[in-house]
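Last lecture ended with a question: if I hand you only a sequence, what can you say about the shape of the protein? Today we answer it with a concrete record. The protein is NodB homology domain-containing protein. Below, first the input exactly as provided, then the predicted structure, then a couple of comments.
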Amino acid sequence: MRRHCWLIGFVGSLCLLILGSVLRTQLQNLMKKQFQKKYDVVESFTAPGNDMVAREMKYFNAPEGRIWRIPIIMYHYVEPQKNDGDTIRRSLTIPPHIFEQQLMTLAEHDIPTYFVRDIPAILSGDEEYATPSVVLTFDDGYQDFYTVVFPLLKKYNVKATVYVINRFLGWKDFLTTKQLKELSESSLVEVGAHTLNHAYLKGISKKTAAYQIVQSKRELEELLGKPVKTFAYPYGEFDPDTIRMVKEASYSAAVSVVPGMEQSTANRYYLYRIRAGSLSYGDEMLRVLGVAQKGSN
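The predicted structure:
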């Protein structure tokens, strides 16, 4: 009788474990589908007009001050192009050989790289800024940042800022917490926050948005044991309310997907970026940075 009860209990526990695993996988797949679907917002994002920028400057009472030409490049995936019908992923992908050529070009022309966290001090004049230079950023915290990007950063001694989504750590195709800790210990990597689950901040309540912004910072700081100073808006969406929340959460700066290179104290909390897909090979990056190729007349 006891053996029979033990067997029933064992089978029941096993069924619960299997059911829990299946439900967890289904939940992850559902969230990732929603995550990919909402990338349509990124592709259709329109840069704010001058009127919106003016309103935000007035809202923060932030003087524009000196304009600095600080190119911030926005990457997502660095992997071979796949012909699987996922056009959004393809549009966000840079093949590894092109990425390496970009880094090689930076190294050959002695172009320095900075972290996003360095920008506030540059804008205020408290840190020297060498021109031309560049800031490399990677959104979402994909696995290829550790397996492909990080080795190349070390090979060419280039810095980069990676923005991670807390709840996606450990999921398939995303960084693990162990990898993130290793990355954060490197002098070549800055870790920034990208909310808890890639939340569409303008589509949720202000209270929930504030929680996403604040809690993602707190959890990363607890995990890594160091300050997390910068933030990236999911889908590039922001407004005066979300900017205020980011500022009040004690971030020193935030990046947007608004295209541009001219930064100032006025847009410190929505720094402009350039899509990596528009750069192609290394010579195109040189053109954007305003650098003449070696050997050219």
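Comments.
1. The domain at 47-289 is CATH 3.20.20.370 (TIM Barrel).
2. The chain has two domains: 2-37, 47-289.
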